[in-house]
Amino acid sequence: xxxxxxxxxxxxxxxxxxxxxxxxxxxxxxxxxxxxxxxxxxxxxxxxxxxxxxxxxxxxxxxxxxxxxxxxxxxxxxxxxxxxxxxxxxxxxxxxxxxxxxxxxxxxxxxxxxxxxxxxxxxxx
Length: 125
Description:
Integrase; single chain; 2 domains; 3 strands; alpha+beta; elongated; 18% strand
């Protein structure tokens, strides 16, 4: 009689990192850069790492993880490159992207802009 229980390899990894632990879970390939996407998070205790690993695995299984890790600046440049604009419209759009959008949003990952993060970055004290 065949053994019905199979030993599957554990998904995700936990390793010591500084004073705590780092949890890493493979989430697929970035569709734009073709690089691997790995979700990572830090934890202080071992039981906490197991909870984090389970949560990250659920995100991957439900496809709620970011699909790309590229910066907004990359996407703005790419959009400008494929836009079908006449010369003056192209120059205007390029100026707006260079002077306003890239300084404000260029460093953000494409998956992170939300109203809360956007407002906190654009407000000045």
